[in-house]
Design brief:
Blueprint lengths: L2 E4 L2 E8 L3 E10 L4 E2 L4 E4 L13 E4 L9 E2 L5 E5 L3 E8 L3 H11 L5 E14 L4 E16 L14 H28 L1
Parallel strand pairs: 5-11, 6-11
Antiparallel strand pairs: 1-10, 2-3, 3-9, 4-5, 6-7, 8-9, 10-11
Length: 188
């Protein structure tokens, strides 16, 4: 089987003293067409059902020469398949490599990810040049990358302070809306 690489979209990254550097996001999204240039590719929502995901490493650029960032076997990388796709959560150990990569993600220098896999079952539509991955055989890694094959992926960092500020603004808007609603009811 061919070993392929896919990007992932990371939806949240945060750091706090209690949790350390935590990454959450989606390594794959179901039923989304990806243009590979020479063909299109779609991941079926059941593609991960029987995949070997027993020992997945989070890497930088799929490189074996760089220290791993997190790993399922050690518990620092967790994977969960939901209705949207393959969700990941990683608590990055406090290493110089992870600090550097986290900083580059937070600053927007690194903004894409991918994952490496082999395919067990697939089907082709030659009229539309589309490959549909029906079943993965093994997932090898998820990686933060410099230059992705898929431009639609993203990764970003959000600090605890940014989150708290967004939540404060949300609460202010919620209170203002409730106040307007009460004033409207009283005027009737």
């Amino acid at each position: 089987m061919e070993k392929a690489v896919k990007e992932i979209r990371l939806v949240d990254m945060r750091a706090s003293e209690e949790e350390g550097m935590v990454v959450e996001g989606y390594a794959a999204v179901f039923d989304t067409v990806t243009d590979l240039g020479w063909m299109h590719e779609v991941i079926d929502r059941h593609a991960f059902d029987n995949a070997d995901m027993s020992d997945i490493v989070m890497k930088y650029n799929h490189e074996d020469s760089v220290l791993p960032m997190a790993r399922t076997r050690g518990g620092s990388l967790q994977l969960n398949v939901d209705d949207h796709g393959l969700k990941i959560r990683a608590k990055l150990p406090d290493t110089s490599v992870n600090k550097d990569i986290y900083t580059l993600i937070r600053e927007g220098v690194l903004s894409k990810m991918s994952f490496a896999f082999t395919v067990k079952s697939e089907e082709y539509d030659y009229d539309t040049d589309t490959r549909k991955i029906l079943e993965f055989d093994k997932i090898f890694d998820v990686s933060v990358v410099d230059v992705p094959a898929y431009e639609t992926t993203e990764i970003y960092a959000r600090s605890k302070e940014d989150y708290e500020e967004e939540k404060r603004k949300y609460e202010e808007k919620k209170i203002a809306f409730e106040k307007q609603k009460l004033e409207l009811m009283l005027s009737l």
